[in-house]
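Query structure, 246 tokens:
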């Protein structure tokens, strides 16, 4: 481990207690590492794609199997900007329990940033079609007067570790400290889960656009959309914050 990453680990080391006080976890926040890629993918397949509201609502579409998702997810993660990603590890068990996967986008990526070109199944078309619909009317680069923007792609925390503030630390640290370090002038995210929306609102993000799931043409025109799987989630929000104000 480099001196820099050892310092980074110490800097972000936190101790968390569950609400019931039954468990005492020693959570460390560490930079992305290629060695953890398989674990990151497993976490996303087991947690993100089985609990994130949009993915849940179209989970019967062709192309939603683990193998199909893996085909586009692995190259996506490999191609995103590793310097602005952050992992949460249960240090006592050396187990990955959370991850925020992000990407730095520039004004030249304006037309392509929300849709990975190699994701071409019906399931991916619905997920990314919805994401594109959500961001359609907003040019985040001109809105923030920015040329480099952090795009928050995916965040997930293992269910055994929910409600301990882990997502909050992941989102906070990557949106502000890591994004600034990489020269980003703004942060943007398509946020589907109410807990994640709450985190970003608390951090001062503004809502740039809101799209109720039942108003989405992408979803409601699809025979695979099942609104009953959305649970208590009603709308997705495109959220953003400037890093150059104040
Ligand atoms: C969303 C997710 C990352 C939150 O992780 P977490 O570590 O449990 O979140 P935190 O403990 O940091 O909680 C942050 C805030 O959200 C609230 N919150 C957490 N889970 C919640 C839930 N299921 N419903 C409503 N609010 C919730 C917490 O109360 C907390 O607010 P508070 O500090 O004011 O009490 C996690 O539920 C997850 O992995 N979900 C599946 C993937 C997903 O949907 N990712 C986000 C896509 S936009």
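Result returned for the query:
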């Amino acid at each position: 481990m480099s001196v820099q990453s050892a310092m980074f680990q110490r800097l972000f080391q936190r101790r968390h207690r569950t609400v019931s006080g039954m468990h005492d976890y020693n959570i460390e926040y560490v930079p992305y590492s290629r060695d953890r890629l398989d674990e990151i993918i497993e976490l996303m397949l087991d947690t993100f794609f089985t609990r994130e509201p949009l993915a849940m609502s179209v989970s019967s579409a062709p192309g939603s199997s683990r193998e199909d998702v893996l085909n586009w997810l692995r190259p996506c993660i490999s191609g995103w900007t590793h310097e602005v990603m952050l992992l949460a590890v249960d240090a006592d068990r050396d187990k990955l329990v959370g991850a925020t996967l992000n990407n730095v986008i520039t004004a030249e990526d304006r037309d392509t940033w929300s849709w990975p070109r190699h994701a071409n199944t019906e399931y991916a078309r619905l997920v990314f079609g919805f994401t594109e619909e959500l961001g359609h009317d907003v040019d985040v680069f001109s809105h923030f007067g920015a040329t480099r923007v952090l795009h928050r792609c995916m965040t997930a925390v293992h269910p055994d570790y929910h409600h301990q503030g882990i997502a909050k630390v992941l989102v906070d640290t990557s949106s502000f400290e890591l994004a600034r370090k990489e020269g980003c002038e703004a942060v943007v995210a398509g946020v589907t889960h109410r807990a994640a929306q709450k985190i970003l609102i608390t951090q001062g993000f503004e809502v740039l656009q809101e799209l109720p799931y039942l108003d989405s043409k992408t979803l409601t025109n699809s025979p695979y959309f099942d609104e009953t799987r959305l649970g208590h989630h009603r709308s997705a929000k495109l959220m953003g914050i400037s890093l150059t104000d104040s």
